[in-house]
Amino acid sequence: MRKRAVAVYSLSLAAFLLLANLPGLAQGTALQINAGGPAVSPFVADKDFAGGGTIHHVNTINTSKVTDPAPAAVYQTGRDGNFTYTIGGFTAGTNYSVRLHFCETYWTAAGKREFNVSINGKQVLTHFDIYATARQKHR
Predict the structure, then answer these.
(1) Which tens digits make up the pLDDT trace of 58-75?
(2) How far apart, in whole angstroms, are the C-alpha atoms of residue 131 and residue 133?
(3) Which of 11, 52, 68, 78 has the fewest CB atoms below 10 angstroms from its CB?
């Protein structure tokens, strides 16, 4: 079994969802981590990270345009700065799906926060801008 790293730089990550068949999880079960926050079912409390800081706010988040959003409380916490998640239990040569949930809770214009995301050493997002994508704060 191998460990996979999700490296995320200078952003606010609310949560991520990893569809995997890891030991201790039923076939096809998702490992869902509330980045920077406590357990909010079905998301577990933040774990398997190194670096970064956490944020918490009580602002209402608009998820009306999100397909299958996380529970609202998940978007009210996050991990920011430079950080890495390393999760063990992966089988070499197997494909896994990773879904990241982002929410811009500070900036009110595009171009203020851009970041890159790498998964297992491969850059999957480059100069990603949450505000430019959502076109609104708290969304």
Answers:
(1) 888 888 888 888 898 988
(2) 5
(3) 68
Per-residue pLDDT reduced to its tens digit, 87-114: 877 777 777 778 888 888 888 888 888 8
How do beta strands 13-19 and 97-102 pair? antiparallel
Report the alpha-carbon distance of residue 49 to residue 32 in Å, rounded. 13
The verdict on residue 28 lying in a domain is yes
Cα 138 to chain centroid, rounded: 16
139 domain-assigned? no
Beta strands, E only, the chain: 2-9, 13-19, 30-34, 44-45, 49-56, 77-90, 97-102, 115-119, 122-128
Q: What is the dihedral of CA 91, 92, 93, 99, to 10 degrees?
A: 60
Q: Which two tokens stand for residue 38?
A: 């406590």
Longest CA–CA separation in the chain, Å = 43
- Which domain range does residue 116 map to? 2-134
